[in-house]
Amino acid sequence: MRKLEDATTLLSGYGVVANESKLRAVRDRLLGEEMKRLETELQTLHGLVLVEGDWAVDSLPEGYKLRSPAVNQVSNPLYFTVFVRKREVSQKNQDEVQALKGQLLRLSVFGSVVAGASNSARDIHVGPVAIF
C-alpha cells in the first residue's frame, strides 16, 4: 500500500496524472488482501502480547471489560478484549475510570492470549499481566 502511495507521489512530481477511480480500486483490493492476511494471523495468535491503543471501558458489576480494535477505521474490526476484576484495581484507579466514563483510555496491556478470534467471535481475549 505504501509503495503505491510513493509511486503515485513520484509520478505526480513529473506531471503524470493518475486515474483516481482506478487508484481507489487498487487501494481497496490491497487493503482487503492485507486485512484478510491479518485476520488469519490473529485467529492463530497465542502466547504473550503487548497491545497498545485506545481502549473503551465497560464497567460491569464484578469488573471492567476493556476493548480495543486490532485495526482502526474498518467496518468490522477484530477486538482485543480484557477483563479486570474490580477487587484487583485500586480504589484510586476505580475512581479515575469512573471519572473518565465514556471516554477512550490510552493504555498498554501486556498479557497472555486466552482465546484467539474466529469467524464467529470477533474478539481476541487477553488475560492481563500488566496494564499501564
Task: Describe it.
The chain is of the alpha+beta class. Helix content is 34%, strand content 35%. It has helices at 2-13, 20-43, 91-99, and strands spanning 48-59, 63-69, 79-85, 105-115, 123-131. The chain has a five-stranded mixed barrel. The mean pLDDT is 82.
How many strand segments?
A: 5
How many separate domains? 2
Chain-averaged pLDDT? 82
How many strands, what sense, and barrel or not for the largest sheet? 5 strands, mixed, barrel
Ends distance: 32 Å
Low-pLDDT ranges: none
Helix percent band: 25-40%
The value of Rg in angstroms is: 20 Å
Portion in beta strands: 25-35%
By DSSP (H or I, 4+ residues per run), the number of helices equals 3
What topology does this entry show?
Layout lengths: L1 H12 L6 H24 L4 E12 L3 E7 L9 E7 L5 H9 L5 E11 L7 E9 L1
Parallel strand pairs: 3-5
Antiparallel strand pairs: 1-2, 1-4, 2-3, 4-5
Task: List key phrases describing it.
132 residues, OB fold (Dihydrolipoamide Acetyltransferase, E2P), five-stranded mixed beta barrel, elongated
Brief rundown of the structure:
The chain has helices spanning 2-13, 20-43, 91-99; strands spanning 48-59, 63-69, 79-85, 105-115, 123-131.
